[in-house]
């Protein structure tokens, strides 16, 4: 009995000690919080989680949540993701400094190679999170050569045109099967596959054949019996890969590895490894193909994968710079595929939604297409033609203002800074609150209204603050594929509206506002133009 009594007493003392440590840690957390040297307003964080519980509560509408916080706490406020403090910025003066185009600016790094990025083996390759300026700069040059050079833009137009022809073929088959000569479809799967095929061909010279397999599936009486091929599964997993990166950046390791939570962590991580292995296999396959080619008889295709491999050989021969591994090359390609598929497909879908719900805007879009191409039933589209489409570009920009591709853009300050009245301590993580900027009444007249005319050069009523519109990022890390993306979008708009008439059925598009905006469903009725 004495033993059990002493044992119970020991257990009680240990529990009391644990409770005391827990209380002391909470007291220390809030002492540090309320006595921090530089403080800004914001929602009160809790220990360990910070504001993560609020983030995940609003996970499906992050952009609206951030916009609400901006209205409540001002243009600069604090959020805590775990123990990491973020300064959320929606003041265009601060954005101008943070998005500086100067090479040696204080805000080159997006996020530090902290635990999350290291766990995913990121931070030293690719364009999005690379903290090594020389490595980032070299990859950016290759990327620009692959997608932003004039010849690359024209080649990209050819790929989009070919993709549209495939889309047209399958839509026409579906329309002809209906007595009413029209079809009701969810537009998202179709447009996503068009852009996926185009970007895959541009980057790897591989045709994943996604449109035909999707058509075969939806026209089969037993679609569930048709297994996805490897390419389909890869592109379906890309969205989850993007979620995985954001999850590892925001959620501390302690929470990621908690019981039950670790099941979700493993799900995201295993998905990322599957997509990585897919890309690694593709890189290895290309290396073997190139080694079997007689260079005197055949030139290598000028896709980005070959450009990366050629640059890697040059590094190896030079000896002054460490060449990339197969894994690093694969990660670079996968990173661009994610952005090259989701961003344009979501933007085009929202374009259809807003145009379809405003007869005046739709009339002006159709008039511009008719006037540019002389109302001909058949025409060839040139790069010069697309540059004339000022109103369509204005509509695209307004879509990107109302439905930005991403909710935030992060930057890390290496040194202390003072921007107007705002003091920025060293080693501070900043995050541009895009919806806070894009919906800020200080920068936009009637910000909630969808009004493409605000972006027209002859609009004397409204001249917008360029730093309050960050649709392709900004500064030295502005998206190098922005011109390619705008060219793709304009071309798809011309091809779609010159061939078909669209009736938007969806009252409000099903969207997922996590860090990246995703249009989940857009039902439209499609029929041929008379």
UniProtKB/TrEMBL annotation:
Entry-linked PROSITE patterns: CYTOCHROME_P450
MF GO annotations: heme binding; iron ion binding; monooxygenase activity; oxidoreductase activity, acting on paired donors, with incorporation or reduction of molecular oxygen
- Sorted alphabetically, which InterPro entries does this protein's record hold? Cyt_P450 (IPR001128), Cyt_P450_CS (IPR017972), Cyt_P450_E_grp-I (IPR002401), Cyt_P450_sf (IPR036396)
Q: Say yes or no: keyword Membrane present.
A: yes
Please indicate which superkingdom the organism of origin belongs to.
Eukaryota
List all membrane-crossing ranges. 12-31
What cofactors does this protein use? Answer: heme
Record keywords:
Heme, Iron, Membrane, Metal-binding, Monooxygenase, Oxidoreductase, Transmembrane, Transmembrane helix
Q: In this record, what's one Pfam family?
A: p450
Residues annotated for heme binding in this entry: 479
Q: Which family does it belong to?
A: Belongs to the cytochrome P450 family.
Protein name, entry field = Cytochrome P450
Originating species: Glomus cerebriforme
